[in-house]
């Protein structure tokens, strides 16, 4: 599925490009405030990056949340830390809110957790040169959180948030969402139902792109049972193929028969097979025991599925079920699915928001902004609210190599992106 631009939208974007308005006097004050606060913003980013907040480090996630909570308290937001039940093994969420009836009601989305757990060797903020820093989670997405905070600080410092409803939602488990979703995403969805627009601050893909669509994410697992026997009997009528051959058949047919639809991808992330297999869902770690002269009796695989619509997701699942059911001799297999993130489709409302962002960017002389290819982005929290509000994502900071020990954040972009965010928010809360 490709993003389609209507002729009317193309015309609007062209008009915006050739006749962008200049910044107002108030907007110039906002820009000036952000320039004055930029060094402080980068120092704040370094502080929160240096607090480990891997998703499973609930204490660390909350510690980062409390740093942001204090900062939002100082600019007049009503803050609330929402704990998750202990059995979910996830930290809570930070919500900060102003109340009012002026203009559009906004929901600003970020997350506090990172993929780097306490045992990761990548733990600290370290400058590479005068503009780039290695930073675990600095790009994905503590940098985006800092942009939200300092954009709102600039608006608050200039007295521009009076009578505006803005909800900031920083979740504590975006990188590995707590289950059940009915609990872990309840507060985010409730906030969306009270809002008109959602803005997500996941990693930016450059000044010239924003995200109007994201693929959904779903988990899948296949478990295979074979007949344990001496390897000399494999392929015989009584012994059959064994669990590992059956798993190999299934994965190969997934690749040949399910692959192919635009924006549909699926990935087997971990595979274990042998005589005995153990896998821990909480830690995503496992082990297997087997011998070369014993036919494997157990195999498991855990994977992920990405899709642009619920219909595409169900088509893929049905094909996978059919493949899993067609077993090799003396084997059996089952497939199960776990919903995680719904898809965010490229609606007309989202594209209209893109036009507004484009106008802001042109006024700031930052260039034209286009819709980014959803096939190149992962899932994110904004997808949970796409059913209820118009939205944009990818408004966070810039960097490279997210989710790897080489992750960087480009500090030279933070000021400009904070300006863009602040002016966008200012215009939206002054639009009926």
Automatic annotation (TrEMBL):
<dbReference type="GO" id="GO:0016787">
    <property type="term" value="F:hydrolase activity"/>
</dbReference>
<keyword id="KW-0378">Hydrolase</keyword>
<dbReference type="InterPro" id="IPR036264">
    <property type="entry name" value="Bact_exopeptidase_dim_dom"/>
</dbReference>
<keyword id="KW-0862">Zinc</keyword>
<feature type="domain" description="Peptidase M20 dimerisation">
    <location>
        <begin position="212"/>
        <end position="330"/>
    </location>
</feature>
<dbReference type="Pfam" id="PF07687">
    <property type="entry name" value="M20_dimer"/>
</dbReference>
<dbReference type="GO" id="GO:0046872">
    <property type="term" value="F:metal ion binding"/>
</dbReference>
<feature type="signal peptide">
    <location>
        <begin position="1"/>
        <end position="20"/>
    </location>
</feature>
<dbReference type="InterPro" id="IPR001261">
    <property type="entry name" value="ArgE/DapE_CS"/>
</dbReference>
<keyword id="KW-0479">Metal-binding</keyword>
<keyword id="KW-0732">Signal</keyword>
<dbReference type="InterPro" id="IPR050072">
    <property type="entry name" value="Peptidase_M20A"/>
</dbReference>
<dbReference type="Pfam" id="PF01546">
    <property type="entry name" value="Peptidase_M20"/>
</dbReference>
<protein>
    <submittedName>
        <fullName>M20/M25/M40 family metallo-hydrolase</fullName>
    </submittedName>
</protein>
<dbReference type="InterPro" id="IPR002933">
    <property type="entry name" value="Peptidase_M20"/>
</dbReference>
<dbReference type="InterPro" id="IPR011650">
    <property type="entry name" value="Peptidase_M20_dimer"/>
</dbReference>
């Amino acid at each position: 599925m490709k993003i389609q631009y209507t002729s009317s939208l193309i015309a609007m974007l062209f008009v915006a490009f050739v006749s962008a308005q200049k910044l107002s006097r108030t907007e110039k004050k906002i820009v000036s405030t952000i320039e004055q606060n930029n060094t402080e913003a980068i120092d704040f980013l370094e502080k929160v990056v240096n607090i480990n907040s891997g998703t499973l480090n609930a204490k660390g996630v909350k510690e980062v949340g409390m740093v942001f909570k204090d900062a939002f308290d100082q600019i007049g937001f009503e803050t609330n830390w929402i704990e998750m039940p202990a059995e979910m093994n996830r930290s809570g969420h930070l919500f900060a809110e102003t109340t009012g009836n002026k203009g559009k009601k906004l929901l600003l989305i970020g997350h506090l957790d990172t993929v780097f757990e306490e045992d990761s060797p990548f733990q600290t903020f370290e400058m590479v040169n005068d503009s780039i820093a290695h930073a675990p989670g600095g790009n994905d997405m503590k940098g985006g959180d800092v942009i939200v905070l300092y954009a709102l600080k600039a608006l608050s410092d200039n007295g521009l948030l009076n009578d505006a409803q803005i909800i900031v939602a920083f979740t504590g488990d975006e990188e590995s969402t707590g289950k059940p979703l009915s609990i872990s995403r309840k507060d985010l969805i409730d906030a969306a139902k009270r809002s008109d627009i959602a803005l997500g601050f996941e990693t930016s893909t450059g000044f010239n792109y924003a995200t109007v669509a994201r693929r959904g994410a779903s988990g899948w697992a296949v478990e295979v049972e074979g007949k344990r026997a001496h390897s000399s009997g494999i392929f015989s009528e009584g012994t059959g193929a064994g669990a590992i051959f059956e798993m190999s058949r299934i994965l190969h047919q997934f690749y040949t028969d399910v692959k192919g639809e635009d924006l549909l991808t699926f990935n087997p992330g971990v595979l274990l097979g042998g005589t005995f297999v153990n896998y821990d869902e909480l830690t995503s770690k496992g082990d297997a025991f087997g011998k070369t002269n014993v036919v494997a009796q157990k195999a498991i695989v855990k994977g992920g599925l990405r899709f642009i619509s619920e219909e595409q997701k169900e088509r893929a699942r049905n094909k996978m079920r059919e493949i899993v059911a067609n077993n090799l001799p003396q084997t059996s297999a089952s497939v199960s699915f776990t919903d995680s993130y719904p898809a965010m489709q490229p609606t007309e409302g989202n594209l209209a928001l893109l036009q507004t962002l484009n106008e802001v960017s042109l006024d700031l002389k930052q260039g034209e902004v286009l819709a980014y290819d959803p096939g190149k982005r992962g899932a994110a929290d904004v997808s949970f609210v796409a059913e209820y509000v118009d939205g944009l994502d990818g408004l966070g900071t810039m960097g490279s190599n997210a989710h790897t020990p080489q992750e960087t954040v480009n500090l030279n972009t933070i000021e400009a992106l904070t300006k863009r965010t602040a002016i966008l928010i200012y215009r939206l809360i002054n639009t009926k």
